[in-house]
């Protein structure tokens, strides 16, 4: 499912490891410098799956 996180993208929840994912904001005192996930990185499930380990890359077994 998705939640409004007010960071530009909806927050998403991974059913297979119970992880709530959200965009990462890189800031300095007066400005937003960057937001990850970065443009151009694609994933078949969710753009937030480009951050961290994916299901096939991890040993997590929380089903």
Note down, in words, how this protein is organized.
The structure is a single chain. 0% of the residues lie in helices and 32% in strands. The model has no long low-confidence stretch (mean pLDDT 80). The protein has one domain (2-57). It is mainly beta. The protein has no helices and 5 strands. The strands form 2 sheets. Strands 1-2-3 form a 3-stranded antiparallel sheet, with no helix packed on it. A two-stranded antiparallel ribbon has the order 4-5. The chain has strands spanning 2-3, 11-14, 19-21, 24-28, 31-36. Strand 1 and strand 2 (11-14) form a beta hairpin.
Annotation keywords:
63 residues, mainly beta, two-stranded antiparallel ribbon, 32% strand
Q: Gist?
A:
It is built from no helices and 5 strands.
Write the layout of secondary structure elements.
Layout: E1 2-3, E2 11-14, E3 19-21, E4 24-28, E5 31-36
Query: Helix and strand string, N-terminal first?
Result: EEEEE
Distance between the termini: 16 Å
- Could you tell me the mean pLDDT? 80
Strand order of the largest sheet: 1-2-3
Helical segment tally? 0
- The helix/strand class is mainly beta
Envelope shape:
globular
Helical percentage: under 10%
DSSP strand content: 25-35%
Counting structural domains, the number is 1
Oligomer designation? single chain
The gyration radius over C-alpha positions equals 13 Å
Q: Indicate the low-confidence ranges by residue numbers.
A: none
Largest sheet: 3 strands, antiparallel
How many beta-strand segments? 5
